[in-house]
């Protein structure tokens, strides 16, 4: 009888364990990426694909960005992970994200506890410098053309 | 509106580059030669203006945003081919300095936003300007945006058909996501910008602008 009860217990526990979905919470392991437009608006609810360094053709992870434009994945190791964000209008992103091996021990806890840095593209000087550079190049090109034609004899009126 | 690198396969980007690069070279020879020296300062200023207004995002109800193109104005003043060269330059600057758009997709973006759209706007303006100049200008700007957006959506749909792994979004979803902001906001603002800027340039009676 005791043997029968043991067998019954074992057979019930087996399938019960097999059907259970378990989870564990680990802090400081995932890579979180925020995707946003140049004006700071989040690219929300957009499809994304993550490709592992060793497997560039099949996505390691797929999903959608959240309402604030965040996405996250858990890399299996360090390397350059390719990330594609594909909004329905095609105005998306195809970049590589460098992942480093996670620091062990107290350092990991410190990183998990530290506040997130501000988004890089939101910094004012960078946002102003790049359009100015583009404008300068356009102005230079046209000015060079005007000067070149002026030098060749048929000067444009001042 | 413009596409980034990594969403289109070489089957689409290479033919587009093969068409756009020689066309831009021909356009540059034709519209930026010695004869155009008088027009170059105005063209340069309007190209710079197009570059700036393409960086200004206009919010669209529903959480997304769009931007003006501003090249129809150049097409109406100097011709569609000149507008194509100017927009090609703007797109190249955006790809290099902003990472907006891309270098491999430059041909597709330039043909859609710099040629097909402004050409449609220019044709509409030529047809309608005798009826009502202001309405013709507005329709030119509005139509230019719709045609350019439709062209980009068409390329994305074609990419989905060629290789859904590269662009997995269904064409109907892409079309709706692109055309709704374009029809309701971007086209209207582009139309108003074209009316305002064209009238301003004409009133200023600038040297080098063809009459």
Shape of chain A: elongated
Q: How many domain units of chain B? A: 1
Query: What's the domain count of chain A?
Result: 2
How many distinct helices of chain B?
A: 7
CATH class placement of chain B: Mainly Alpha
The side-by-side strand order for the widest beta sheet of chain A comes to: 3-2-5-6
CATH architectural type of the largest domain in chain A: Sandwich
Shape of chain B: globular
Strand tally of chain A, please?
6
- For this structure, the CATH topology of the largest domain in chain A is Immunoglobulin-like
Oligomer category: heterodimer
Question: How many individual β-strands of chain B?
Answer: 2
Q: How many alpha or pi helices of chain A?
A: 3
| CATH homologous superfamily (4th level) name of the largest domain in chain A | Carboxypeptidase-like, regulatory domain
Q: What can be said about the biggest beta sheet of chain B?
A: 2 strands, antiparallel
Our measurement of the CA-to-CA distance between the termini of chain A, rounded to an integer number of angstroms, reads 110 Å
Compute the separation of the termini of chain B in Å: 31 Å
Rg result of chain A: 27 Å
Structural class of chain B: mainly alpha
Residues in β-strands, percent of chain A? 15-25%
């Amino acid at each position: 009888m005791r043997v029968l009860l043991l067998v019954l217990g074992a057979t019930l526990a087996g399938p019960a364990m097999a059907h259970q979905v378990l989870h564990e919470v680990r802090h400081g392991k995932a890579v979180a990426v925020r995707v946003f437009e140049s004006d700071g608006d989040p690219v929300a609810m957009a499809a994304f694909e993550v490709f592992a360094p060793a497997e560039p053709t099949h996505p390691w992870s797929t999903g959608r960005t959240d309402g604030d434009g965040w996405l996250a994945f858990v890399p299996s190791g360090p390397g350059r992970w390719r990330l594609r964000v594909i909004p329905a209008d095609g105005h998306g992103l195809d970049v590589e994200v460098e992942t480093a091996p996670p620091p062990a021990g107290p350092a990991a806890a410190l990183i998990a506890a530290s506040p997130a840095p501000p988004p890089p593209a939101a910094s004012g000087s960078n946002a102003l410098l790049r359009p100015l550079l583009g404008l300068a190049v356009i102005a230079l090109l046209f000015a060079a053309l005007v000067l070149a034609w002026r030098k060749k004899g048929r000067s444009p009126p001042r | 509106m413009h596409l980034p690198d990594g969403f289109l396969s070489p089957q689409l980007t290479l033919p587009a580059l093969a068409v756009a690069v020689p066309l831009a070279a021909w356009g540059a020879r034709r519209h930026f030669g010695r004869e155009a020296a008088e027009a170059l300062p105005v063209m340069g200023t309007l190209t710079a203006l197009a570059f700036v207004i393409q960086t200004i995002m206009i919010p669209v109800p529903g959480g997304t945003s769009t931007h003006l193109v501003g090249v129809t104005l150049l097409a109406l003043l100097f011709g569609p081919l000149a507008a194509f060269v100017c927009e090609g330059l703007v797109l190249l600057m955006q790809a290099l300095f902003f990472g907006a758009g891309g270098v491999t997709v430059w041909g597709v973006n330039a043909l859609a936003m710099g040629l097909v759209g402004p050409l449609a706007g220019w044709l509409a303006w030529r047809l309608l300007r005798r009826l009502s100049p202001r309405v013709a200008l507005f329709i030119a700007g509005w139509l230019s945006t719709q045609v350019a957006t439709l062209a980009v959506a068409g390329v994305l749909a074609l990419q989905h058909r060629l290789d859904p792994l590269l662009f997995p979004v269904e064409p109907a979803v892409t079309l709706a996501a692109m055309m709704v902001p374009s029809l309701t906001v971007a086209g209207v603002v582009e139309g108003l910008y074209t009316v305002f800027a064209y009238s301003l340039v004409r009133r200023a009676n600038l040297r080098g602008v063809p009459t």
